[in-house]
TrEMBL record, chains A, B:
Belongs to the GST superfamily. NadH family. GO terms for molecular function: 2-hydroxychromene-2-carboxylate isomerase activity; glutathione peroxidase activity; glutathione transferase activity. InterPro entries: DSBA-like_thioredoxin_dom, GST_Kappa/NadH, HCCAis_GSTk, NahD-like, Thioredoxin-like_sf. Its EC number is 5.99.1.4. Keywords: Isomerase. It is an enzyme of class 5 (isomerase). The active site is at S15 (nucleophile). GO terms for biological process: glutathione metabolic process; naphthalene catabolic process. This is 2-hydroxychromene-2-carboxylate isomerase. It comes from Leptothrix cholodnii (strain ATCC 51168 / LMG 8142 / SP-6) (Leptothrix discophora (strain SP-6)). The lineage of its organism: Bacteria, Pseudomonadati, Pseudomonadota, Betaproteobacteria, Burkholderiales. Residues 7-193 form the DSBA-like thioredoxin domain.
Length: 201, 201
């Protein structure tokens, strides 16, 4: 018997909608007997490739977006505190993700959840090396080792290749999901993904 | 007893997500005992004010958007045929809307539905004057009268003022909904609007 195909889930540690989606994607997939393959990416890189910008970079859209982040979290039942500074560069959190992923994808997923929750509920600034390594230490990665991983050309390069692969797969934002070749963009595509997995296509 | 407050619904005749939303907004509002106030606007004008562009103007986003238009319509149970040309200028369809609205808002809403359905199920090019006046004639507006309304400075000016009012109200895309002061952007906010109207805020 074949293993059921994984759902690809692309997220950025600084993306509110990625955070919200990260809280439901595995449970939703499990209801359909599907595993989830998590991919840490840098939204800034995909925005650049697609000639897009963050919604909060547009003055009129910013106010709405901040409101919608909080409302969408509330309606999903996910705790949410708007962090400041926001958005933040997340390459170091993502490098740690790919480092863990190389040997233990489930632990990488746990790290992703820990990072997203820390930023979006406690405002832990993942772009600040001492805050990041402090969080890593809480998670069980010695701070010094975490700092070494972030500075290691191997993981810098790995993240670069993963970003390129995401762009090649058509990813232009986050969260982004690919289910059996079908692309879904946004936390708000949850019910469509659920129906798609039920065979309602 | 006060009349229940209307939901403001902003749409553009060339917006696929506006079309899909136009097919559910009145039924959803009616379930909550609410009337709906329709507003024909020009997305190009709101995009300009917000420094935004249409999603289909971004190469990487275009392919996804076209797919998502059709999928979103299908999942909503709304017939949909991708029109060509697309997008189209819709100022004339919108002027006819505001002309009807001045004396009979319900009939203006019917015209909006007729125009959206004609464009998104039969590809009737609302930017083509003879196609537009032909549709108007089917709807019961003599073609010559429709052409006069479209050329009349009164309705050009009315549409301009309605666009300005929408921008002043914070509208930067379509469909856009304002419910008791709360803004919702996108066909995909349907369930949030439903829950908001149920008192789940």
């Amino acid at each position: 018997m074949n293993r059921p195909a994984a759902i690809d889930f692309y997220f950025d540690f600084s993306s509110p909608y990625s955070y919200i989606a990260s809280e439901w994607i595995n449970a939703l997939a499990a209801r359909h007997g599907r595993p989830v393959r998590w991919h840490a990416i840098l939204l800034g890189v995909t925005f650049q490739a697609a000639e897009l910008r963050s919604p909060v970079s547009y003055p009129l859209k910013r106010e709405y977006s901040l409101r919608d982040f909080a409302r969408s979290a509330r309606m999903e039942g996910v705790p949410y505190v708007m962090p400041s500074p926001f958005p933040i560069p997340t390459q170091n959190a993502a490098r740690l993700f790919w480092w863990l992923d190389a040997t233990d994808p489930a632990r990488a997923t746990d790290w992703a959840r820990a990072g997203l929750r820390a930023f979006f509920t406690r405002g832990v600034d993942l772009s600040n090396m001492s805050a990041l390594t402090g969080l890593a230490a809480e998670f069980g990665i010695p701070a010094e080792q975490a700092a070494q991983v972030c500075a290691d050309p191997i993981w810098k390069d790995k993240l670069r290749r993963e970003n390129d692969a995401a762009i090649a797969a058509g990813v232009f934002g986050a969260p982004f999901f690919i289910v059996d070749g079908e692309p879904f963009w946004g936390n708000d595509r949850k019910s469509q993904i659920d129906r798609w997995l039920s065979g309602d296509r």
